[in-house]
Specification:
This is CopG family transcriptional regulator. Helix content is 41%, strand content 27%. It is of the alpha/beta class.
């Protein structure tokens, strides 16, 4: 990292017991102001301030997020697909279009072949958890 910027790692609010780390770059003045607020007791640490700032911005835009989730038919929160879920879809000759704002996960015992046979497309705004083999098999279907 350069002298003009320092990386700061923050974790978004846990959803379904999961967190994802993000990295941001801040200039020394912004970082100094954050440290001052922490020192003065307004926040317990840098991450606390960043989480609070993110939550405040999300609250400001809550209506736009809600309208977009509805318009784009996104599942809000956590959507998990087990091997049994995908086998049932395969038996019913169904192909899934997965659209999630939050966390989408595919069980570790799902084979790449089963995923390819049952998942038509994946759109995830947030985090997508699956085995490396399943992610590789579905790479052309992830948007």
């Amino acid at each position: 990292m350069g002298e003009q910027q320092k990386a700061l790692v923050a974790q978004p609010r846990p959803k379904g017991g999961e967190t994802e780390k993000i990295t941001i770059n801040l200039g020394p003045v912004d970082l100094g102001q954050i440290d001052l607020l922490v020192e003065e007791g307004f926040y317990s640490n840098r991450t606390d301030l960043i989480r609070t700032a993110i939550r405040n911005q999300l609250a400001i835009h809550a209506q736009a997020v809600s309208e977009t989730v509805t318009r784009r038919a996104l599942v809000l929160g956590l959507q998990h697909f087990s091997r049994q879920d995908l086998e049932a879809a395969q038996a019913a000759h169904q192909r899934l279009d997965i659209h999630v704002l939050g966390l989408a996960s595919i069980a570790s015992d799902v084979t790449p072949e089963l995923a390819l046979a049952t998942i038509e497309s994946i759109v995830v705004l947030g985090a997508f958890h699956a085995s490396a083999a399943v992610k590789a098999a579905l790479a052309g279907r992830i948007r």
